[in-house]
Amino acid sequence: MLQLTLIRHAKSSWQTSGLRDFDRPLNARGLHDAPHMGQRMHEHGLAFDRIVASPALRAISTARLIAQQLDYPEDSIDTLPPLYEASVDALLRCVQSFDPQLSRIALVAHNPGITGLCNFLTDAGIGDLPTGAVAVIEFTVDDWQAVNRDSGTLKMLLTPKQQGERR
Fold it and tell me: Kind and range of the H or E element at 90?
């Protein structure tokens, strides 16, 4: 069985005019929510063989703050440039390229792609993953290449504003 955890980056700042979108940092809420979500993930027993993130500042910052809560080495987070502003197809290609020896992977990226991928892989019908949201999807296959439309089951959905989860 494979487990993919989709994480939308935490809330970012729009305060600095002229700053490239790629370079936007997390705002105060994002700096609070990311480690909080990491702690909640830890409480739910989530652990990862690999964390992969968009190289955009807000995504990699989210990944690092979550990794700290999970005792995952920050220097082991992989950044993949194609994840920045990736379409569902690009995200799916990334997932399908994962090493089959790794069964628990977290992917930190951006909307609309991350919500689109969640809905593509499951029948969850989520309207929009809010910033900082965590969606845990399980697959009965044993190779990432077999992951495709409606092949997964949404096992858990955590958001910064809610304490509840979907199981």
Answer: helix 88-96
